[in-house]
Amino acid sequence: MTIPIEELSQPETPRQCTHDFRVNCSNCRLSSLCLPLALESDDIDKLDNIVQRGKPLQKGEHVYQAGGPFSAVYAVRSGAIKAYRVTDDGREQVTGFYFPGEILGMDGIAKNSHACSARALETSAVCEIPFSSLAELSARMPNLQRHFFQLMSREITEDQQLITLLSKNTAEERIAALMLSISARNARRKLSSTRFRLPMSRIDIGNYLGLTVETVSRVFSRLQKLDVLEVSNKEITINDTRGLQDIANVIIEA
User: Fold this and answer.
1) Do 81 and 63 share a structural domain?
2) pLDDT by residue (tens digit) across 180-222?
């Protein structure tokens, strides 16, 4: 699992997310994450014209459901979203967590229907981007097209990383790698990389990582004893980033 070292060492400048559905692409503080930096202001206005913003989703409400028709991709503006599938025997399998500035819903492109469901973990706001309009706009804006190709590539890479995580790593390595992933994603949003709140439950963490909830709790306790993490309910403080990297056995890019 590759996590650029610069993403783990950003200054700690926590900023509160907003659920304001009146925000637009030009003034959204997350635009540098979900939009290509090279877009001109006129191009941003064109994109903003196709983006649909509804009122915030409440915890447990769906963005979309498996088997439903694919018509749009979604950018998380605030809160957190869980993607999951239901197995043949009726069990829920978590396939990913999405945070502000991240895009979801691309699982529906191949077959024009969603392969998984996406549900809000807490009060969350999303931007709905109709895919037909996006495809038409991307054809006229190469920078936008390239950016969404990069997003799809990142999605594939993260899926591959999860497969590696589940097939080879110990429980400690899995938990440590997830904490580092959340840390890096917070840093990209100019939030603290060492202090954050987990929006998901321990049940969801265990489900995602292929661990029992008891194992998740035991690993958090061990990491606390090693003084690598401090855990208070869902509040996480990383005391030793390098130690966490060593446990996760991640590759650090210079």
Assistant:
1) yes
2) 999 998 998 889 999 999 999 999 999 999 999 999 999 999 9
The pair of three-digit structure tokens given for residue 58, joined into one six-digit string = 């409440």
Tens of pLDDT, residue by residue over 69-102, are 999 999 898 999 999 999 999 999 999 999 998 8
Instruction: Tokens for 43, please give them.
Output: 């191009």
Instruction: Label residue 35 by pLDDT band (50, 70, 90).
Output: low
Task: Supply 145's token pair.
Answer: 């097209």
Flag whether 13 is in a domain. no
Same domain? 158 vs 61:
yes
Residue 239: what are its φ and ψ, rounded to 5°?
Answer: -85, -30
d(CA 245, CA 173): 9
State the total domains in the chain.
2
Q: Are 74 and 126 in contact (CB under 8 A)?
A: yes
CA distances from 50 to 45, 53, 66, 72, 254 (A): 9, 10, 24, 11, 39
Measured CA to CA, the distance from residue 98 to residue 161 in angstroms comes to 15
- pLDDT tens digits, residue range 213-227? 999 999 999 999 999
User: Any idea what the CATH number is for the domain that residue 173 is in?
Assistant: 1.10.10.10
**Which of 99, 120, 118, 96 minimizes the C-alpha distance to 209?**
96
Host H or E run for residue 73: strand 72-78
